[in-house]
Amino acid sequence: MGRQIYEAIADGILGGGVYALMAVGLTLIFGVLDIINIAQGILVVLGAYLSYVLSVHLHIDLFVGLLITVPAMFVIGVAIQWLFIRPLRGRDRASMSLLAAYAVALIIEGLLYRIFGPNYVVLTASYVTSSVHLFGFYLPDIYLYGFALAVACVAALYLLLYRTRFGRSVRATMQDQMAARLIGIDVNRVAAVTFGIGVAVTAVGGMMFGATSGGFNPNSGYDLISRLLAIIILGGLGSIGGALAAAVFMTTAEALVDIWSPDWAVVVFYVALVLVLAIRPSGLFGRAPARAQ
Amino acid sequence: MSPRAENTVTPRAEGTASVRAASTVIQRGGGALVVLAVLAVFPLAVSNATITTIAVDTLIFAAAAVAWNIFSGYSGYISLGHAVFFGAGAYTVGIAARAWQLNGDPVFALLPLAGCVAAALSVPLGLIALRVRRHTFVVITIAFFFIAQLSATNLSWTGGSSGILAPSPNWAAATFNDPFYYIALALLVATIAASWLIRRSRFGLQLRAIRDDEDRAAGLGVRPMPVKLAAFVISAIVTGMAGGLWFYFIGQAIPQFAFDPLFDLSVVVMAFFGGLGTLSGPLLGALIIEPTQQWLTLQYTNEYLSEILLGALFLAVILGLPRGVIPTAAERIDALRARRRRAPAREEVPQAGPAGQAGQPGRAGQAAP
User: Which residue of B has its CA nearest to A283?
Assistant: First the structure.
């Protein structure tokens, strides 16, 4: 039993790294654009399918394929923002953008169904099935590589945000869009690039998801987005550190409940979310909400 | 037919305007009666089962969309979790009919029970969710939705992933859809009446004041929580009854269709299409979108294409008609009238700018009766 618990914690932390990466993209988009990209789940699935096409049809290694899929997802993200999010104006902008993202998700889901059908597929490579013996546990290689990659990506995002000029303009826009505009920041460009970055990380997340989830189909997006939403709300909307902590916390909690009952493990996500919000409406690390308007 | 006042809380002008308002009410009432009469004789005139099936479906969704609008449209809190109540209603009717061995007409008597169960669920959910606003509220309603769907799949008494079967009534095949049609019509009419009464009442004003600026409304003496919660519960009751009726009509409830993310999206888009927060907007949206959706599904039995077209339609609505058909059309008509009135003689000054009607936040408190 004790062994199972340690194993669950190790699984939770390693798996949490990948969710953290996807959630950071989502929370970054929220922070800058003040919208929730509900299409993030299906975009992860799209990223997984891109990796699938590259590895099965072109025989490109999963990790090498990221050199193609990450820029591709970046372009898709910028296009979605430019075509469907940017034109929205007015009082109901927040809810309208949510619906627009939902509609985009529906279209992508329909397209994926038409192209790939409803059958489950899985990403395979030699390191997906092999594992290493570490501290008395057998850990699948893919989890270790993926965790390392996720940590590297989050670190790169951190450097981008806190050590570059572009990052400074992103943070300025997150703090106060009007003031950022006044000091000469091109807020539209920042918004488009941020959306692109937030979506680009789904290429990495999608590859990892496809390799570790034991099979995915176009319908997998719903499960993903609901988990990601729970993570970013729990961490406090717009808080990057909060998203990291919440991702690891949630996946570990899920892995622990999984020992007892796999059926109810997924519910843990949402129950944790509801409990936290009942006590602390702004999430674990969120600031108190400003006056809503 | 000037539905312009529907969009926001507008203080009603005195004098001639009230005469005009009265005549508008009569006109509108007459129009509504004509529509009702047409809808009432519809199944007598049309016997094609495919069409009446779509009609029943449309009426059920129209009731759900109007009910959604009573809460989300009036209060501005966008709920993407109303499928919880829809599914709860469906399962209530299913489980009760199975437990009490009901069949035929008596099953319809379970609909109020479905409404009660939905209401009982909505109180705790509302107490938690309504503490947060905007995005967080939307997301927490989505979380409720997933909890409900997962529970329906995993609990033993809901039949798991194979769901639950409805009793199959032994009505004559030719008029099989008629009982469903008339019950759905009654539910829709009752819901519209409730929506209309709420809009006109003090309660409705408080709701729309919350939508315009919750903090200011609270400052003016509105107690937001009870008001929001009451609207949430009313909306849930109707949605639960619609869910129960839908279940009996479809004949089966399985978790992913009783708790369907597309249901949430559909009612929202219907309301947005017609005009969020208006009385007739969600109805119009449902009457246009649901048959279109059904037709697309029948036309392209490969459902994935209908999904793509549906998404494209939503995008077109959101980008092309951001405020909905009814408010946009009302503006156009008002602008046209104002121009025509000004053209012959300048005897009458239009009492309000045609386009200026939209969004006057903060005016909610001083609106008329």
Answer: B136
